[in-house]
Amino acid sequence: MQMTKFCNHLYDETTDGYIQILKLNDDYNGDKTIKIYNTKNDGLKDVVEELHEKEDVFLSPNTMYLPKRRVENIRQFRALFQDIDCESIGFEKAETVYMVWMLHYEGKIPKPTMVTDSGRGVHLYFRIKNAPYGALNTWQELQDYIYYQLKHLGSDRKATDGARVLRLPGTINSKCDADCKVLYIDNETEYSMYELREEYLNYKPKVHQLQMQQSKKLDNKVISNRFFNSYSLHMERANDLEMLCKLRKYDMTGYRNMAVHCYAYWKGIYVRDSYELENTVIEFNNAFTEPLKETEIRAVLRCIPKAVDKFIAYEQGIRSGERKRVSKGMRDKDGYWYKNETLIDRLGITIVEQRYMKTIIGIDEKYDRNNKRRREERRNENGLTKREEDKMKTIESIKKLYQQGYKQVEIVKTLGLSKGRVSQIIKELKAK
Question: By the 8 A CB rule, do 284 and 238 touch?
Fold first, then answer.
């Protein structure tokens, strides 16, 4: 019953991708070995029944599109979650759950949809409408926000990445010989990440920073510029660095230390599991024509957790309404906020190479792109840019299908648009 309730809460007929389950075992030498199960939702019941009342079983709340558990392989985000090791800091489980609910009543966090006893602490789950890998930066922002609010209760930063596994109820935690079980469950509530973002992250999307500066009004809202916020910027910069290596056919001699340092930090914003991050960075380094030694890689990795902690504190401080600036000390020691000019100089990025980048570009390339965009946005005979013309066509298509009696879900599938976009336009049509 514990396993069934747990699995039915997280997974349903909309579940796509692989669910990974880990079973830790002791070998004859007393070392831990891992047995890995990768199953689709229709095979989940058989696997969990096999593992009922076994020791040290873990499950991934989010699914993977490949049977390999990595952040970059995420197929669906099914829940936000937190691993709270409350007993290690002197809180009892009941006391911790009470304080979690108080934080919810104070409007600081959403109400958990499920709470489980992990043996030495509690796990909180916030079930969400499933979202694809493209929602990674929003998922991570929300995950970090909740972690930051629960940090004083023993929330574990290492358990905040999308590929994390948590203990499965109906099994046993061998470290304390305790049963893992479901304490609370609410099957009626399912959150939208974008609604949570607006409610808890003090988020104001798609407002250009220049407009904010010109408004002359004090505003604590998080500024999301035309293309990126801090989370998505780090992800795209890691992608830019991978592109740079490909352009150079991985001949990064003279730039290896800076490349590995930046890559480890940018990836570390999303990959919180130290073992997975180490493997990811080692793979990146090993692709070089002249790789660094693994001892050098591990030396770089030692500073990453503290830098990520500082990044979270800074970002969540802003989202809490604090007025902060990135100080010189943060750039030099605790967080790495390199300007494009610095990255271009220290990685030796040429004008030609910048043309293949999304974020690491100089002033000249930026102006070239802006001029190109302006040329592409020439207006048609009706005075509309191509973007405005496409928008009008989309509205007309939705209007036509809606008047023909199509449901919103059918319109989404027919036109290949997002559910939110279709819903917004239909609301506007009804209001007229």
Answer: no
User: Nearest Cα to 110, choosing from 121, 131, 125?
Assistant: 125
Confidence of residue 404 (pLDDT cuts 50, 70, 90): confident
Residue 211 in any domain: the answer is no
The whole-number pLDDT of residue 14 equals 93
> What letter does residue 25 receive in the DSSP assignment?
E
My answer on whether 367 and 236 are in the same domain is: yes
Q: Which of 273, 312, 316, 297 is nearest to 71 (CA)?
A: 273
This model's pTM is above 0.85: no
> Is 298 found in the same domain as 272?
yes
Do residue 180 and residue 255 come from a single domain? no
Which CATH number goes with the domain that contains 70?
3.90.920.10
254-307 confidence digits (pLDDT tens): 999 999 999 999 999 999 989 999 999 999 999 999 999 999 999 999 999 999
Contact by Cβ (8 Å): 169, 6 = yes
CA–CA separation, 189 vs 174, rounded Å?
Answer: 32
Of 29-43, 310-324, 329-343, the range with the lowest mean pLDDT is 329-343
- Considering the domain architecture, whether residues 394 and 363 belong to the same structural domain is answered as no
Q: Which of 136, 135, 132 is nearest to 76 (CA)?
A: 132
Residues 93 and 6 occupy one common structural domain: yes
Determine the Cα–Cα distance for residues 130 and 347; give it in Å rounded to an integer: 38
Q: Based on the domain organization, do 48 and 168 belong to the same domain? A: yes
- Tell me which residue of 365, 139, 328, 132 sits closest to 240, measured CA to CA: 365
Is the same domain home to 297 and 317? Answer: yes
What amino acid is encoded at 400 in this protein?
K
Do 251 and 158 share a structural domain?
no
**252 is a domain residue:** yes
Express each pLDDT in 153-205 by its tens digit: 999 999 999 999 999 999 999 988 999 999 999 999 999 998 999 899 877 65
Domain hosting residue 407, numbered range: 386-431
Q: Where are the alpha helices (DSSP H) in 133-292?
A: 136-150, 193-200, 209-215, 230-247, 256-268, 274-286
